[in-house]
Design a protein that fits this description.
Strands 2-3-4-1-5 form a five-stranded parallel beta sheet, sandwiched between helices. It contains 15 helices and five strands. By secondary structure, it is of the alpha/beta class. The longest helix is centred in the last third of the chain and has 23 residues. α1 packs across α10, α6 packs parallel to α8 and α9 runs parallel beside α11. The chain folds into three domains: 115 residues, P-loop containing nucleotide triphosphate hydrolases (Rossmann fold); 59 residues, Helicase, Ruva Protein, domain 3 (Orthogonal Bundle), CATH 1.10.8.60; 118 residues, Zinc Finger, Delta Prime, domain 3.
Length: 316
């Protein structure tokens, strides 16, 4: 039997993949117990507002996770507001605070967490640890790197753990069980500050809700704007819909690449994922994204990130 959840977690550190996985595990734990997730953005919500949310009873029975991202920017007043409610927090409510890598070592949030319990802090690998980090990530993703390929990937991508994880996932998917050599890395790997939209698209393609939630958090932490991501994702879902139609009529990736004007590699990935996207589901997602876009442009009083998250996750 799994241990009971603590009332408070602070998830932080410079190893962003582990921070986001820890957050995703909490979400999955609550969802598996038929609980509810309430996401908040610390840039738009004060400590007092989060305290008020925690003090309220949930709308449904079962565990409840109040998940707040971006708390590294909170001030002393925000932290003080949380102190007053933790003792009276409803027993089935867990507050999870997710901080970016800039959280200071002396930040007052750390004093809220009991030592050795609710503090989940993950340090990024050092330069000497990077090769082993890549090998572990490859094993997790079902891939196997040749030694020269590991060195080449680090040379191209650099030391950013999140960027390395994304490239390892992509290469493992492309290799499909075959060894990953330096030539493949040189051809497919890249260093990019805007890789998070591709991680989100891959998660949506596979209808992997937890991975999509993690990619949304990552994109937000990287400064990606929902206003830009919504049309990108809508075009991607439309490509999946077109791939399913093409496959139903005997068309392949090459035909899709020509008709849609996309790279053959992207077309092949869309064809491979299309079976998970019936016409009705794809249309429903596109409509949800259109509604989120309308809300962001003044059609409703809602935080843009929250509108985007709802559109992506509710029907995934």
């Amino acid at each position: 039997m799994a241990d009971a959840l603590l009332p408070l977690y602070l998830i932080c550190g410079t190893d962003r993949p582990k921070v986001l996985r820890a957050s995703a595990r909490l979400r999955a734990r609550v969802e598996s117990d038929h609980g509810t997730i309430e996401p908040y953005d610390a840039h738009a919500s004060s400590g007092a507002e989060i305290a008020g949310a925690c003090a309220q009873l949930g709308l449904f029975d079962g565990p409840r996770l109040v998940l707040v991202t971006g708390v590294e920017g909170w001030k002393a007043d925000d932290v003080a507001a949380l102190k007053s409610v933790l003792d009276g927090q409803p027993g089935l409510t867990t507050l999870a605070l997710v901080a970016g890598p800039s959280l200071r070592a002396d930040h007052k949030l750390r004093t809220l967490v009991a030592e050795g319990k609710g503090l989940l802090e993950f340090a990024a690998p050092t330069a000497r640890e990077l090769p082993e980090f890549v090998r572990r990530e490859a094993q997790r993703a079902g891939g196997r790197f040749e030694p020269e390929a590991v060195r080449r990937l680090i040379e191209i991508v650099g030391s950013d753990a999140m960027a390395l994880e994304r490239e390892v996932d992509k290469l493992a998917t492309f290799a499909a069980g075959e060894p990953i050599d330096a030539t493949m890395v040189t051809t497919l790997a890249f260093r990019s500050d805007d890789a998070s939209p591709f991680a989100l698209q891959d998660a949506v393609s596979g209808r992997r809700r937890q991975a999509a939630a993690r990619a949304l958090v990552d994109a937000d932490a990287a400064g990606e704007k929902p206003h830009a991501l919504v049309p990108q994702l809508a075009r991607h879902v439309d490509l999946l819909r077109r791939a399913r139609r093409s496959s139903a009529h005997g068309g392949g990736a090459q035909a899709l690449a020509r008709s849609a004007g996309v790279h053959p590699f992207r077309a092949q990935k869309a064809v491979d994922a299309a079976s998970a996207w019936p016409e009705r589901d794809a249309a429903k997602m596109i409509v949800a994204l259109a509604r989120a876009d309308h809300a962001m442009k003044g059609g409703a009083r809602i935080d843009p990130q929250l509108a985007f998250e709802r559109a992506v996750l509710e029907d995934l």
